[in-house]
Each structure stands twice: as structure tokens, then as C-alpha cells.
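User:
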Amino acid sequence: MSSVPGDGVDAARRRRRSTTAVKEALRELRNQLSLLNHQVSGRLAIKDVDLDCLELISRNGPLSPSSLARSAGLHPATMTGILDRLQKGGWIVRERDPEATDRRAIAVRAVRGRNAELFRLYSGMNGALDEICDEYSEAELDLISDFLRRARAAGSAATDDLSHS
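Assistant: Predicted structure:
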């Protein structure tokens, strides 16, 4: 340990600057991804929120509309309009939920044949991310992945806190 006066203060200052830089980079990334998603949704002639819900359905489906509304943080009445638009555009189908005790219950699933359109629109970003990942070791990628998972969990907790206050 160094006995030079100010080393601890300088280290704390550098640590704060580094932490601030990470937070700023995450905000900039969030903004850029929002702009990318806005461009994609515009090309698909759907709303940004519809694209967000389609992603949730594709990743976690089939889902009940109420489960989807909870996952998206939206009111069930809002979800009905979103699902109507996605179904009209051929992005999703509503099917009777075979596992539900209520025969009226439905599940929503993404139409797999439409994925190629999404992949094409995101191909530029996916290719760029592949190139970026090629510059990191497997251990570094594991660390980055862990950081992003933990940051997502922190965002989820903050969202839950706000929705219950």
C-alpha cells in the first residue's frame, strides 16, 4: 500500500469518474437502441410499444394477454389495442390456451414466419455487435454479459419500486 498522501482520494475520484462513465455509456446506449427500435418499428409500420410487446411475446411466449401486460408494465386495455394491431399485421396469433381451466382463456404467440423481416432490419446492429465481441476474450465477454444481466436486474427492481410507490 502506498504511503503517498492523496493516493486514496485520487483512487476514489478515479473510481467515481469510471462509474459515472459507465452510467453515461448505458444511458447513451439506451437512447441509441431506442432510436434503432423506432426506425425498425417505422419500417414495419407498427408502433414502438408494439415492437416491444412483440419482442416479449417472441422471447417468452406464448403468453396470456394479462401476463404480457404485466411484463410490459401496461394496462390490460392498452394491451388489447396492441394485440389487435399486431394480429392485424400478421405478427401474432391468439389461440385458445389449452392449459387454462377457463375455456375462454387465450394465449398469444408470435408468427415465426415473420422473424426473417426482423432479423433483416436488425442485421446491421447484429453484425456490428459480432465484430465488437470478436475483439474480446471469452472471459471478458462473460464479465460483460454478467454486468449487463445485473444492470437489467437493477432496472427491473427500480421499475418494480416505481410501480408500487
